[in-house]
Structure formats: C-alpha cells, structure tokens
Amino acid sequence: MIFSEDDDALRMRWAVVCSVPDATMVDYLSDFSSWFLSEVTKVAAKLNIYARFEERAKVAMHVPVGNFDACAVAYEKIRKNWPAVMFILHILPEKNAPEYEWMRSLSAAHGFVRQGVLLENALDKFASVSQQGNNLYTVFSNVAQWVARATSKLCLDKDPANKPYDLRIGSGVVMPGNTKIDQDAIQTAVNTVLSRSAHMLPLHREESAVQITGFPTSLNEFGLAQLFPGLKVTGVIISQGKATVTFATKFLAYEACQLSSKKLDPYHTLHVESLSPEVKEQLELSVK
User: Fold this and answer.
1) Per-residue pLDDT tens for 216-269?
2) Distances in Å between the alpha carbon of 190 and those of 88, 198, 232, 270?
3) 225-236: buried (b, 16+ CB within 10 Å) or exposed (e) per residue?
4) Are residues 103 and 34 located together in one domain of the fold?
5) Of the segments 21-25, 174-178, 193-197, which one has the largest average pLDDT value?
6) Which domain of life does the UniProt lineage start with (predicted)?
7) What is the pLDDT at residue 221?
8) 117 domain-assigned
9) pLDDT at 144 over 50
10) Which listed residue, of 156, 168, 169, 236, carries a Cα 20 to 30 Å from 285's Cα?
11) 2 within a domain of the structure (yes/no)
12) Do 130 and 33 sit in the same domain of this protein?
C-alpha cells in the first residue's frame, strides 16, 4: 500500500511496518497509525517540541510474525524506495515479542527514528490503556518527547556508531584525518545534496540570498532548504536563530520572499528578507 506525496517541509515522513498474523489488518492499522501520530503531533505542538508528522504514511508493509528476514527486508525496502522516510511506526504482535529488538536494531542500522505499538493497543486505540486509569495525553506526550530526543540525537550525535550514513568527499575507501580536501569538491557535494545538481552557482551571493527568521530551532540546514519547495537552494548558514539562504538566482530569491509571513505551525511564522538591494526594490514596487 503506497500513498501520495504531500509536500510539507516541517512534517516528518514516516512508514508503518505491521508484524501481525493477518495481512488484511494492514488497512486498519494504517488508519490507526495516522490517527495515533496525529494525536502525537497535536501534543507535541502544545509542548513546543518537534514531533510533527505527515497525515499519511508513505508506505504500510505487512511482515509475518516471527520472521526476522522479512522484517529486515521491509526496513531495507523503505530506506531504498522511500529515502525521505525517517520515522518507522512498528506494530508489534505482543509483549516481549522479538520484533521489539528487531525494530531497535534495524532502525539503528538504517538511521530511522522508531516507535513500537502493541497490536492490542492499536486495535482498540488504547481504550484498554485508558480503562486502566492511564491518561492518553501522557502516552502521546511520552512518544512526542522520545521522538524529539531521538531526532535531535540522529542529527547532532558525533558518535559514528549512531550515524549509519555519511557524505564522503574525496577518493578511496578510507580517508586519513589529515587529508586536505578540495573546497570545490565540498561545495559540489553540498550543492548536489541540496539541489540534486552538481552544476550550481557559488554557494553564497548577496544578490540571490535572503535572511530568514521564525523557524523552529530544531531544523538543520537541510530542513531549512526544504522550507522553499521548488526553489533551488545552493547554500544555508545558520547563526543565532537566523539563517542566510542562498538560491541559484536572484529571481528565486524574489520568489522566496513571497513566502514571508507563512505560518509554519501554531508557534512559528517564517519571515524572509532579501539581502539584495535590487530584489528589495522589486518587492517594494510589487506592493505599490
């Protein structure tokens, strides 16, 4: 089951893996997952933390219970076929099932943030948990806080054991730490990641640059670039709650300024200001 693409740069892309005895349950579990992560998103917004999800999963996969190989294949397929996915919601068949440890190890291997939910809780939408006197707000809050911590760790952790993929610039399988790297190679690599093209203009030019504020502090350079869908970003520099974003042309910088005052979420409003006098002049003329 595959769902359509929705472009919201601040919402996390996710997938569902269902370790359940009956494949026909996947449709219901996919709907449950959307409801569950919607509730987590609402609570995260109230807590002012980053745990915001797209409305639907990119894909929902069935995996036979007790089958590690099938589970491993599912995780690998998600990584290869849906590279934008960074979160896995895994429906676990029962308490103390081996799938829990598989979820942890496979997520670490592929660089996913993960969360498990017992099948019984998914089927009744945590009704039994609520009947036991547990506050569902606390459940959603705990998940939101875990996702925020795990996402931050994935982005900021310096331990290579927690960074399964990296961008390597240079030649050879292993690069010595004292290797001098060509700055043009670095620029080309960054351009390629940000704009999917190795043929870009220099990273930072005032005529095609803007300064932005009002974005969530949890966003890194790549997250900020995604705030401008369809516009080729060639560089991002973050400093003290502000960021300079450079585009391939001054015309794209002009278009980016049209997004100023865009509401990103209930707590963040994007503000975009051109650094180019020429673009500023054109913006002033457009409002007269």
Assistant:
1) 888 888 788 889 888 888 888 888 889 999 888 888 999 999 999 999 888 889
2) 27, 9, 12, 24
3) bbbbeebbbbbb
4) yes
5) 21-25
6) Eukaryota
7) 82
8) yes
9) yes
10) 236
11) no
12) yes
Do 21 and 152 have their domain in common? Answer: yes
Q: Which domain holds residue 43?
A: 14-156
Decide: 243 and 222 in contact? Cβ < 8 Å: no
**Amino acid making up residue 108:** A
- Mean pLDDT taken over the chain: 82
Which of 130, 156, 182 lies at the terminal end of a domain, its last residue? 156
- Residue 280's CB is within 10 A of a number of other CB atoms, namely 14
Is 1 part of a structural domain of the chain? no
Give the dihedral of Cα atoms 14, 213, 256, 191; nearest 10 deg: -60
CA 112 to chain centroid, in Å, comes to 10
When divided into structural domains, the chain yields a total of: 2
Quick one: pLDDT band at residue 189, thresholds 50, 70, 90?
Answer: low
In a domain, 216, yes or no: yes
Residue 210, pLDDT score = 93
pLDDT of residue 57: 95
- Identify whether residues 213 and 116 lie together within a single domain: no
What local confidence, expressed as pLDDT, does residue 31 receive? 96
Q: 248 to each of 41, 95, 171, 203, how far by Cα in Å?
A: 34, 52, 28, 8
